Structure formats: structure tokens, C-alpha cells
Amino acid sequence: MSSEKTTADATARLSGAAFWGHDGKALADFYAAALGWKVTQTYGDTAAMISDGTTGYVFYTAKDFRAPDWPADELVFHLELACDDVAATEELLLSLGATKPDHQPGGERWTVLLDPSGQPFCISARG
To answer: Is the pTM of this model over 0.85?
Structure first.
């Protein structure tokens, strides 16, 4: 028997991520509604987790949070959400508190929105 690990044994699966904003619980509520997920746990008044049962995202309140001045600031990361009906999804996300900046570099391929904490994310058609 060999004790060598294969590459497949050593790879990992993303099980979650953490995000900071001016109101972690409100941000968790926004993304839970956007993704059709549930808020599964809260941590006092400052954080909440959402999950689809396999992946979890935790949203924290950061008292000194400052949203990026996009597009002037480079982004550390952003989320890409795929949907079946981009127009209906955009309408839903705007009703949940997202905003749509004037700068839209994706043309017809994707739409940039800002979440309630001012962080950019994109929506596009599945596939």
C-alpha cells in the first residue's frame, strides 16, 4: 500500500466565505433573498450565516466598513450571479436594496449592481 496522496485527495471544495459590510445581518438577508437561500444562524447583532445546505456565507458588520469607490478602486473580489431571467432578477434585486451604477462595462453580457453595502456584483444569464 502506498501512502502517497493523489492530487484529487489533496484538492479542496469551497464550503463557504465571509463578507463584511456596514450591516452584516441586513446583507445576509439581502443575499439570502437574492439566492433563494435561508438565514441559518445569527451571531448576536453583528453577523449572520446563509446557506443552501452545502455552502455557507457569513456576513459580518464592520464598524469601519467602506465600500469600494468602483470603478475607480480595484476590487479584491466580486460575486457573479447567474439567473434564468436577467430583467426579472434585476428588478427583484433592486427591490431588495441593490442599486444600479451608471458604469456598465458588460454591455449585453452582464449587469453590474451594488449590494446594499455598496459592493459591486454581477448578474448574467445562466450558461
So the answer is: yes
Is the Cβ–Cβ distance between 49 and 83 less than 8 Å? no
Phi then psi dihedrals of residue 13, to 5 deg: -115, 135
What is the SS3 assignment for 43? strand
Nearest to 50, CA basis, from 64, 62, 35, 65: 35
Q: Provide the residue type at 99 as one letter.
A: T
Cα–Cα distance, 44 to 60 (Å, whole number): 10
Distances (CA, A) of 125 to 70, 80, 117: 23, 10, 24
Report all structural domains of the chain as residue ranges with CATH numbers, in order of start.
16-65 (3.30.720.120), 67-127 (3.10.180.10)
- Residues 9-65 have pLDDT tens digits of 778 888 999 999 999 999 999 999 999 999 999 999 999 999 999 999 999 999 999
By DSSP bridging, strand 56-61 and strand 16-21 are: parallel
For residue 7, give every residue at least 6 positions away whose Cβ sits within 8 Å of its Cβ, in sequence order, or none.
none
